[in-house]
Structures are given as structure tokens and as C-alpha cells.
Amino acid sequence: MVQSTGVQRAKMSRHQRTPLKNTNNVVEVKSKFEAEYRRFALKKSGTGGFQEFYRLLQTVHRIPSVEVLLGYADIYGDLLPINNDDNFYKALSSANPLLRIIIQKRDVDEPVVFATNSLQRRKKGLAGLRPAQQKTKPGLMIGHPQDFRQISSIIDVDILPETHRRVRLHKHGTHKPLGFYIRDGVSVRVTPQGVEKVPGVFISRLVRGGLAESTGLLGVNDEILEVNGIDVDSKSLDQVTDMMVANSHNLIVTVKPANQRNNVVLRGSKVSVGGNSSSGSIGSTISHDLAPSPASQSVSHYSNSNSVAEGDSDEDGDIIIESDILPYLPDHCVSNGNGSHREFPLSSSLGQRPLPQSIFLPSSGSLSDSKASLNSLTTPTHNGSPTKTSSSQESMREDGNIITM
Amino acid sequence: MMKFRFRRQGNDPQREKIKQELFAFNKTVEHGFPHQPCALAFDPQLQLMAIGTKSGAIKIYGSPGVEFTGLHRDAAAVAQIHFLQGQGRLLSLLDDNTLHLWELGGASRDRGGAKSEGVVYLEEKRNYSLLGRPGLESCSASRVTVLLLLSSCDLLCVGTEGGGIHFLDLPRLSLRDNQSLLLDQVIIPEDYRCGKSLGPVESLQEHPKQPGKILIGYSRGLVVLWDLSTRNAEHMFLGKQQLESLVWERSGSSFVSSHSDGGYSVWAVASGNTYTHQPVSSSIPYVVLYSGGMPRASYGDRHCVTIQQDKQHVTLDFTSRVIDFFTVHTTDPEHDYDDPKALVVLLEEELVVIDLLTTGWPSVPPPYLAPLHSSAITTSCHLDNVPAKLWDRLAAAGNSQGAQPGSWPICGGKNLAPPPRQQELLLTGHEDGTVRFWNVSAVAMTPLYKLSTANVFHTDCDPNDDPLDPTNDPEALQEEEWPPFRKVGCFDPYSDDPRLGIQKISLCKYSCRLVVAGTAGQVIVLGLSDEWSDHTVDVSTVDLLQDREGFTWKGHDRLEPRASTAPFPPGFQPLVLVQALPPASVTSVMLHAEWNLVAFGTSHGFGLFDYHRRTAVLARCTLHPNDSLAMEGPLSRVKSLKKSLRQSFRRIRKSRVSGKKRPIPTPTSKIQEANAALADQEEVAPVQRRIEPRSADDSLSGVVRCLCFADTYLRDGTHHGPTLWAGTNSGSVYAYALEVPGVGSGRGRPGGEGSGCVEAVLGKEIQLMHRAPVVSVCVLDGRGKPLPEPYQASLDLATAPDMTNPHSVLIASEEQLKVFSLPKVGAKTKFKLTAHEGCRVRRVAMVTVCSTAQEDYSETSLVCLTNLGDLHLFNVPALRPQVRYDCIRKEDISGIASCVFTRNGQGFYLISPSEYQRFSLSAKVITEPLCTVELERPLETHIRSLLHTNTSGDTHSSLLETHTLLAVPGGDYNRTWPRSPTPLEGYLQPPTYHPETRPSIAHKDLRHDTTQGAGANPDRKITSVTQPTQVTHPSQGRYESAPVSQ
Asked: Where are the annotated coiled coils located (chain B) (predicted)?
């Protein structure tokens, strides 16, 4: 099944564009670990799963005990992860004909970044890319809070008016303050009767270093229209405050940004993405657009069904400590409410498709290289899918909220 | 997804109908004493009393249960009220110079499915505003100073500040054109005139025998007897003293005038003589009543009414300002004398009734209008279905305190309300350490019993010398003092020691055990006894901090328990005193009399005490390590040091900014100044709110908000047993499994001797993720119904709880309601109220509401009052919203905080410090006044069927009753009228002496001279009730608002 060739020198196969034996059933693999390259061939049919491949690479590179993360370069030059069977097969099928594998040591200190243009930058020199790491544990690659924590997303772009923005802030797992203040103000509405001034609630201040500021999605003087799907019209400032605090673990605010120019750019970039690029990831983006995203559906529950039990995602994380033997309990276990260990059972069931999509953008040269903007720009284009991941996390959490001692 | 579609609310017509049969929101009765009363009137014929308040409300009271309330559209203070006697109509004069005519109207009301015939209520019919004569009279000149209703009730004479008198037809309230009597139409002798105006009309009085004649008193002293039919001055009395009021003698042959110097004069009305210059003098053997009139220097700060008859002389010493008073007397015109039965004094804070028939003039405890706030209310607790045993013993204990209802003199109207189905008790805890028990079974809220806890402690004041006790021996006049003062009334807002304040109450109605807990961490267990007892109280302390290091309590000390034995009167007598350490205010208390356990919580933790064995079972600290504020008690001054520092810095910054902005005041800078002010307003940073999730170390997170005992499944699904639940401010719930000897295993009697002591083992800890304060914990049985109260199950007083199906626990936090399964705690249902509505839960209660349609159908609902003052009802345990009502204004924080629910779907909240508003959520159980009044109304229309017409027809027109004020601001020269820029002439003149009436007048400095050396507060007045002529008084609102025209 697997043949390995112990080639030790670097830069061998750059120009081997037309390999001889790539006819149909063999994939040429070039893997790199630190400064070392290995080249070998894989049979397309009959290859084992991801685990087998992983072990193979460990053997090939003679790093049997090192935990690594695997990545591959797709046809657009993006570095994508390989961490389960599905994306392994995807990688195999995308070999054209060479499959370039990058192996990174799994490093706790430096979070891995798989992102758009990562390979382009890498080509210019490795400085642009954090040492891309590989994962050992299956299914924990993307969206895992330890490695890549989502802090915000723009959702429901498809159903909202252009001038509005629905932002989801993920407070869980972070120690950053939510970090914003709201105030009363006057909003101008255009009605059939003309322009009309109505009281409104606005963001008055962003705390430096807070979650809200770091997302770049909320700004001072943005008008707040909805909190978790509930219209704040006719609600007082204190009511809106209470609603936001009550939802602070999973806050979805719909704002009318004071600066409307960003809206246009966002939509424009999305359109251009849909227009000029090709292939599967785009198609799936469109399909997301057509069907309401899970987030928007769950948001609409808030407004039309009052008695919500299971559907809403957040904070079923009440911690119950049962101590039938101990007369007194140490206090420490009470407060680690947001523990990240609940995702352990997360497995390949998460599905292959949403994950890569939620992370990768089809390449587009206009996007900036800075990491901060990467975050903010990546998320909006993939409405829906990030939420899907997080809501599936929530369901995990609901299962795992009882800790028995 | 589909699940949600199916769970949509509200479209099932069947369910909607059931809801309508179950729920209805009504504000029913206002219990207690009206806030800020300012006018009083009495209809001797109908025996109804009316009280007007500063907020424009008019309340009419008759016999207990007969109440009517009306509210003026404008919230102006009611200055005067006058009854149209016998007609069920009354006139009110407001501060804004408008007259309003009110009627007791009758119509059948549809309430609760049953038509209640003959119910009468108060409604406004007409109003009238007196306009000034264009160009001639300024607005203030047309200001009404005095009203006179002729006894025929068809004409109203309106005296104004400009001196004019206008006549209005009644009940149409229309001005009789061209009949007004203006000052220039009164021809007075040239030598009297002195070029000065006669001043405002001070008094109008109808002749007691000759209906067409009225006596007009002008401020300067002139009194005119005016004939209305001939429009002619029949007689003039050229008084030279500043006039305050007039009163006729009953025969009509003389009248009495009172003056600003504190004196009064008697004038003879002799026919034929047009001018009288000098009053006659006479000694009056009458009962004389007056308020004020005290020597200012010594008693200027007292609120007094003096009763004098022959040698008897009592000066009633009140704790609040005297608003007005009247006497209840005979209405029979044939009587030679008024024969006053009772004196009713309306004070600012209470109503006092003096029995004038009984020697010694004792006070009569009112059956309603109780001053709830005699000491500020700090907590309340409601019990329904009070067993007769407890009720009778309480009533007996109350009677021994002198609360027995005497013969109430105001007995108009008829109470049609059915007798209460059950006895209901409302307990109020007060700041002075008392607990008052009120009978709230019916419309009239009557005091039943008062418990004082101060005598458990060693305090500065002697517990035997209780000044609040209204049962002062009427003869116990303080002999050494003159005038003979007598303290009357129970309003006493001053607390000797704020630590005595009652914070929480829990009462077991079956075992008659009571637990009260107070500000200094005291938890007192009391038992009911019918005899005096002389015993010591066991004292025990529970340290809630236990092993926690590094905390020092900076608040108040604990109260020192009384060392010696004290005699405890019949009623609730203390058995055990438990003191929590540190002595922070008790925030939650729960009694389980069947297990002999009391649980209490403070801001530091909670404890469990076995009062049978007198041992502490459990102490648990709930403090978060970072919580420093918890150590500074509620009375501490350092509490908000951080905050106050921040505030003062802000203030400094602000003042600097504003100082800089202030432009130099030049004549031209007016506009700039205005602009700057506008700009300032815009620049002021708007109110901001921080959006941040709660963290574990928020201050006061350890406050124990609720405690709950339940017999349920905590450890496993097969064995149930006693449990204790405690919820804190930071969203933690602790559940302990209790080992109570004799309970659980053999169902033996509680407190089985010798079988060991109670043990508590922590079973579960629940930390709500959203960390909102836990407001309530309630365990539901297998059917989803709340567990019965202690004893209810064992005594077969309630349906036994379902112990076969799994139980669940309902935890209500400020933000959401949640039901968890038991014993494995798993979320079953929840409702996120705050996330949906933006409101927060303040009060929660389980109520059982009966249907109006089906006698035996009832539903248990969770009612929840939010910080916006609205009520939400949810079904249990599904937690589906049922109905929502607006109840309390959201600004009324004390109202929301004081709200208490009853189990049958009613509730109470404070609308003022002295008044409870009662409301009902149940369509079936409504406690509201249903009463009728027999009226005799000439132009009556729609309640004809009710009228039991008096055959004598016009008796009322021949009634010889006059209303007069003898208001005498006394001779205090230092404090003149506040509205008078210059000292008044009358003040500076030496008083005219009438030695016969005031024998001691020559010794002005003597304290005896009450009428002369009068405390001249402008709000004082002297009213005299003579036997031949009854005298009442216009309200003092009129008096104050009358500037003196010079």
C-alpha cells in the first residue's frame, strides 16, 4: 500500500511536475518536518485512514514519539489541516499530482494558525507563518478553544438589511471582559410619515483590550437594535442592560453601525469572492446563504417562542456537585464553570465540510496580511458555519455539565 | 426545531378561556392610613367621614368595611371637604382653586361572575373653577378662602381672598349671576373704614334659626349679618381684632369670634341695633375644644388638642401635626345640646378618637385607618387559613394589650361584603423591634396583637415604660405638669436602637411557633402562651465564619441579651435567642416546627439550629474570599468608601468644569449664559451602563437569599428525607440532607428524645452559570405541586404530597426560573425572563388560583414580581407564561420591595409608608369593599331603588348645624406669618382682655393661660365646641393659604 522513499535532501522535487507514475492510482507525497523533507508515494485507492497516515509520517520522519500537526497545501495555496479521515481523503483527492504535507510540532505555546494565504506568505519566507503545528488528537483541530478560539462572528448576513449587523460575542472560555458600555440616545428613523426621532440605545464606550473592542465588529455610537433576537424598542436602558448581562455568555447583538462604510466593503468582498473564485468551498457558501443559518433560526426562536428550554445554546452549564459522602466541599470546583475539557468527546462526527470552510477563505489578494484583520474578515464571510460549530459544542456542553465527585 | 413550533404559546382558545376563569388582576383595597392627609369632613347624618390627601385623593369611611375612594384628576392637594348632609354628596376644594362635586353613585358591578347589587362607589360629577372679575380682581383675589353650604344644601357661598362672596347653585355648581356680594356693596360706617380694605372673607356662618341669613366675617374684624333674600346688611359688628373664625350659639342669639391674638369674644345679636361696637362677655359652661393654644415658649413644638369641661381639663399630646378634628354628636334638632359622643382628631400620621361619654375621656382604638408606620415597616409576612385556635389566642392576647374594639362612633353605611371565608393574618416587622399582627380577612385592616422583642435584650429604655402603648391609663395624667398633658396615639417613628429592627419573620400556624430575625443577627424563637411568664431566655451563638481567616467584622455589635428574668405578657413569649456571628443582618429565615429546626442566613453564611435541643446543627460560610464588603454591616459608615471617594472626585471635577464655564456676568451675556447652559446640558455624559457578566467575586455574593425545608429525594430516588436548601446572591444553591431523629424512618413525633441529635450532610451544590442571585427555592412533588407546609401532611390538613413519582426543585434566580429533576439534578425546564423581557425577578411565590367557572378546579402557578413592577404568572412545572399584569410603578422601589403574596392569589404592597395596597390575581378571590349607604337625595336619579326615603322629607333643612372655625394664632411675636412681610397690626396690639373667660390673662407669662399665650404657629387654631353650638373647623389648608391683605 504505502511505499516510502527515504530521500534526505531538500528541494528535490520542485520541478517534478509531471511525475511518471502518477497515472491514476498513486499520489506523490512530499512531506516536510522542520528542515527535513521526505518524498514517497501513496496508493490512492486502498489507503488507510488518517491514523494510519499519521503513523506512517511519524515513521518516515523518524519521530515516533513527537506529537505533530499535519497540514497540506491545497490547490489555492492555502494551508489546510489534516486531522481526520475526511480531510485526509480530501487532501488525497486534491493532490495535483503532488501532495505537499507540512508537519509541525505540536506546540502549546504557539497556537496554530491555518488561514488564508498562509502558504503565500510562507513562500516568501517562513516568517509570515507561525510554525504551523499539527495535531495528534483526532477531530480537535479547528474550533478547539485551546488552539483557535472563536470570539465573535457576524451572522445572518443574508436575512438582515445591509445597514444592520448581527454580531455574536463568545464570552465563554475567555477571561477578557466583555468590555462595552451602552447609553440612551436618539435615533433617527425614516418612516412613511417622514424622518422621525425616537429614543434608542447606543454603545457608548469600548473598554480597551476588551472582547468587544478586539472583535472590531462593534463601535462607539452603534445603535443596538436587538439583543439575542429580541427587539429593544420600547425597552429602557436598564432593561437592555439586564438583557445583555443575562445573555452575556452568548451575546448576539444586532446593531446599526455608526460607520456604515465597512458594511459595503464586507458585502462587496463577499460578492467578489463568489464571483471570481471557483470550486467547492464557494458552492457551499452559497448554499449557506440560501438556507437560513442555524444561528438565525435559533435567534428567531427567542422571539417567537417564549418558553425555551433546550434550544438555546448557552449556559446550561450550571454546575452541580453531588457529594454524598463529603460533609464539606472544597470551594474550588464551583467556579471553573467554563472549563474547556468538555469538548474531549468531539470526534469526526463534527463533519468535514463545515470545519475547513469556517476557517479558510478562498484566496483573494485584497485581504490584508495582519492577523487581527484576519480574524475579523474571515468570520463574516462564512455566516452560519462558525455558529454551527459552536452550537454543536454547546450541545456537548449540555451533556457534560454534571460533574460527579 | 419542530419542538419549538409546537411549544408556541397562546393560540388555544380553550386554554384562553380557562385562563380568563382563573386570572384577573384587580387592585382592591387600600389598607392603613392615607398618606399626607390634609382635609377632614364629617356627615353627622350619614355618619360618614371623609379624608382628603395632598395627592388629591378623597377617602370616605363609615362603619368598618364601608370605604369609598375617589381621586381627583389633578393631583392637587385637597384643601377643604364639605358634605352635603344626607345626600351622599360632597364638595371638595383643591389647592388649585377648583371646586369638585362628588357623588356616591350606585350601580351593580359584575365581579367574579356574581352580580353584587347595591354597591355604591364614589365618582366625580362636576367641577367648577371660580374666575376673577376681568380687570378688577387678580387671580389671587378670587382665591377661595371659605365655603359655606347652606343647610338647605342648594346654595353654596364662596368667600374669597378679595373679600367677595359668590353664590353657586347646588348641585349644578353654577354661579348665580349678578348676585355676588363684593366688598364695595357693604356699606360700613365712615369712622370704621380708616381707608383700609376689609380683607379676605375669613368666615361664613349660617344663622342657626333663620335660614336666609348668614354671618360674614372679614379678616380685619368686621362681622356682618347678611340677609340673603333682601340682600341687605342686617347687623354689623365692628370688631377691631384680626378675625380668625366665627361660631354661632345654637339659639342664634349670640355668636363667638376668635382672633389672632389668641382671644375670643362673644357678641350678642340683638334686634333693632344695627351697629355693635363691643362684644358682651360671658362665662361659658360648655365643653371647649381647641387645638394649639399652647404657650409657645414652653410647648411650641407640641401638637395638642385641649378638652375642657368645667374642672376637667386634658391636653392631648400627639406625636404628629393636628390636621383637623370634629365631634360626633346628636343630629336631632330638638335637642338643646349637641351631646358630643366622641372627638375625632385627624393627625398627619394617624387618626385618634376620644370617647367623650366615658369619664376620663379614653381613646378608642380605630377598627381601620391603622397607622402601619407607627414605626417603619421593615418586613412582612402573610398567613392564610389561620386556625381558629391560634386566632382566638392571638385575639385574647391582643385584648389584654387593650386592643379590644370599643364602640366605634363612625358607623355610616352598611357592609355588604360576605363574611370572610377564612381568617388571614398579616405580620409586619418594624424598625423598633415590634411585630404587629393584623387581621386582613376583610376590607378593614384591624390590629390584632403587637409583639415587642426589645425586652429580650438589654437596652437603654425600660421595657415596662412603653410609650407606644395606646393603653395608657386615661387617668394617668402627668400631675406635675400643667397643662395636664396626656400622650395619645401610637405613631412613634423614632427607634431606640436600629439593631432591634425586624428583618424576617416565619410563623408556623399549627404549632404556634414564631421566629423573628433582626438587624443584629438575632434569631428569636417564640412560643404562644396565654399567661404571664417570668423566665430567662436561652441564648446561643452560631459563628458563621468558622474557620475563615482574615475577616474582621466592622459593623455593629451584637445586641446584649438581657441578663435578668423579665416578665413576658401573654402572647408570644421568647424561648430561645440565637445570635449569628458576625452580627450581620439576617437576610433569610425559615422555620420547620415539625422538625424543631430553624434555619437562618446572613450575608456571611447560614446556620441551622435545633431549638428543641438548643444546639446548632450546622454553620456554613458562603463568603467568597474576595468579598470584603460583606464584613461591613449595613449600618457601617465605611461601607462605600470606595464609592464615595469616586463620587467626591467626580464632584470636584464637575465643579471645576462648571466653574471654568461660567461666563463673566455682564449684562450682554444673558443669552450666552443660556446657550452655555444648554451646551452644558448636552455635554453632560449620558447615563452609561456597563455590560459585563457577573463574576464570582462580586461584592456581597455570599448573602443567603432564601432557605427552604423539604422532605424529598436528595441522595437517591428511593429514600426521601428532610432536606435544607439555601440559595445565595451569587447563584449558588446548597442542598443538605438532614438526619432528623424520628423523621423519615418511623414518622414518629418530632424531636424524639434520646435518639440523638439532628445531623446535616451536604448533598448537592448547584452553581447557576449566570450567577444571578437565587430568589427562591421550592421543591415540587411528583405531580409538580409544591410540598405542603410542615404539619399539613402529618395532620391531614392538605392532600399528601406525591412521593411515588420523581420530585423536582424549582430554583428562581433574579434572571431565570428553572426546574431541576431530583435526586439527579438535571435541568428540566426553564424560563429566561431577563433575557426575554429585560426585567429581573424581585419576588416569587407559589399561588393556587381557583376557577370562577368550576368550583373545584384550581391551578398552582408561580407568580413573579419584577423590578419593572409587573407580575408574571407561570404554570408549574412547565414554566409556561400564562398572563402578565402591570402592578406597581417601576420607580416605586419600596413598593416593589414590600410586596407580599398570599397563597390564594392576592397580594399587598406599600403605596406609602402607611398604606398597603391590596391586589388580587385571582378571578375568584377578591377582597374589596362592598357596601351601601342609605341616601336621601332630592335630585336623585339612578339609585332610587336604594333610597329609604325619610318620611319627614326635609329634616335636613331644619338641622341647626353650623360649621365654624375659631382659629387663633396666638401671641407669638417672633414667628409671624410666613407670608406676611410686615408684622401684623393685630399682633402688635395688646390683646383685649375678657377677664371672665380668661381669668388668668393678666399673668401672661403663666403657663396656665393657654388661650392667651398661645403657641402662635400659624397652623394652630382653637376650635371650641360648645354645648349649644357645635363647632368644627375648616381645614387648615385654607388657613395657611390665606395671605393677609393689608
From this structure: none
